[in-house]
Amino acid sequence: MTEILPTNGYTDGDVDTNPSTQISLEALAEARYSRRQALLRGAGATTMAVLGTSVLAACGGDNNETTLVVSAGDSAATSSGRVVVLTGSVTAGNTGVTSSAWAQNSGTTVDLTISGLTATFIAPAVSAATDLKFSFAVTNADGETAVSTTTVRVSPAALGFTAIAHSLEDIAVVPAGYSVTVMTRLGDPLAAGVAAYANDGTDDNFAQRIGDHGDALHFFGLSAAGSRDDSSSTRGLMVQNHENLSVDYLHPSGPTNVSTGPRPADEAKKEIEAHGVSVSEYADSGDRTWAYVQSSSFNRRITPMTPMAFHGPAAGSAMLVTAYSNNGTAGRGTINNCANGISGWATNLTCEENWAGYFRRDASDAALRTGNELRALARYGVSSKTGNYAWSTVASTEAMFQKWNATITGASAAADYRYEPNQYGWVVEIDPYDPTSTPRKRTALGRCGHEGAFVRVVAGQKVGVYMGDDSRGEYLYKYVSNTAFDSADASASDRLGVGDKYLDNGTLYVAKFNADGTGQWLQLVYGSVPSLPATGTYPEYVFADQADVLVNTRLAADALGATPMDRPEWTAGNPVTGEIYLTLTNSNASKRPLNGTDAANPRHYGDPNLSGSTSYGNPNGHIIRLREDGDTTDATTFKWDIYLFGADATDYPSDANVNVSGLTTSNDFSSPDGLYFSRDTNPAGQINPVLWIETDDGAMTDRTNCMLLAALPGNVGDGGATTLTNKDKDGNTATQATFAGTAATAANLRRFLVGPVECEITGIDMTPDGRTLFVGIQHPGENGDAAAPSSHWPDSQAGTAAATVRPRSAIIAITKDDGGIIGL
């Protein structure tokens, strides 16, 4: 008699596995008709030739007659990340079956979820075709046991969905086999007792509501008991930035005097509080049925008035003194929060991007400033006579409104807000698990228009933080900690204290890209940064100390001769290779003229639109990537190439000078912005991780709304040298040598999502198991107003919405209907 194999006792926390499953006669009868089935679910799963499935029959009675016959199903094939369902059957001797069991015999170990005759698992990540063998065993009432085996061949990860076509619909379009759930939206309440959002302009109290223009986001896992759990895929905290406003929809009939002032206090307060960061609890009630928890004790709003602490070399500098902090160590608030970074110790890094325009400077201010101050203010763009939304024109002495006026009015810096602009432009660290904690502005990472801050943490190496400065002609930065990372710090309870250790003491660098495909990191260290020569009306700028270098990082990078880039935005790191990717969203003819290209920013061309006009420069953008020499974060040299060039494949189907990457209408894109690699806790982030690309486009929006693409990228150097012939609006040409990655194909780049009307796709993360993808939809209908909304999303996601419904920024949860890994 064949001995029964032991039952696999795996449980994923949601499914109880009974080690001795009683099988009903009805189930046995049904199984008889599926005895040779090995059901493989997931897009593109195929059945391969039988590899030798065996059926072992038990011997019953003295005459050795075969009485119990079982089947584990035919052998089959799939690829990494797809759902596999093994279905066993009993075809003879099935009277009084007492137990059945599935077990894995060989191959990469998987987690089996067993229910009766079936066993389900996610195909693991593999680097080459790998056979996984399984056994199905049954015992009947006579004590007879039979065992059958089957083989599943798993191939390396492949994109497993049909590419989405261009779309101008007012919905988020995803591939067949996927579903969308709308999660937190603009105005959703974050505390018990706060009324539901009316969405008619009458709502207030944004200090307890989800803010506007949701941007970068991250899911921080929670255990069932409510503590940090990095592996949780069913409960967590969603931390999201709130970059800006669709101000016309926030008030009943739009804003009052928004450009010039005076502003009503209630309108200005609403707008101020709608900026910042939100923390909200998300929970899965089962099978990836997601909702947010309005009354969670973890919910929090961080606004432009939330107390902040300055840390690092610039803390206490005279350049940070204000009427709120006479010693320059404290501040209030964060604003224009764009992309983010996630530390290796479970904190969130939110980045202050286009903060400069919020500040007002009256005409009288210039005569009261030093030459150095005027040069720094001009370099950062603090020049408005009213400031965005004219908040400082409110007839009130409250700091909430007056802090936006940077005009010198007092006898000293401690008597006014002349240096309030210097309190912004930083990377801010937040502990999402502690709603009472004070966020810390990390001055060692420099001050600029921070788009994002990708953190690379490798045990035994120094912590590296890679940051883009989001403006045309700005730079790529890297910060390297003085101390190598201790893996014990990953689980420390004093998370902001760990941040002090790694983010307050280190070296800031700026990138120089060479024409030969190499690059250098230039130190932004006092003593090694030369003075800036006098220019125009500005005197020579001599840096006073390290605080000066960090407060005026752009000036220091100018002095070192860093490479100006085509609007550097998000950074992301390949979790397997360590290579760093940077989106360069676009540039125009004034910043990237025909005779002003370089190897890292090599294109100048024209992009026509349906109105008949043509934009010149690099209107579709590109993605550059680099690999540190020695694969260490503290390397001072690197290799680089251009991974992808954006292009409109309809306008340029075959012009290799523009459509350098060979895009087609199933994967063309423009203005890459957000970047994200799938988490390395699931097959989509292992071996050959999936890269997700989000767009913030104005060049192709006559053809399609903004989008999200999935890619399987290669490595730096997988392409080669090429020379482009650029052409300006007058027909003049010039050549530019560069380095391009391997061409795009349907196998390595596909469009996964297209958003609703006039939106930006921004903010992305997934649960650790890779089975839910969270994506931000920002400012749908941004060109409409309260009287005539140009989008009605997210209401339109469920069907036709009323013509008066106002659009709202929101997060969506995308799940695969078969429960598989997103994208594969």
TrEMBL record:
Stretches for region Disordered: 591-616
Name recorded for this polypeptide: PhoX family phosphatase
Species of origin: Novosphingobium album
Domain of life per record: Bacteria
Classification via Gene3D superfamilies: 2.60.40.3010
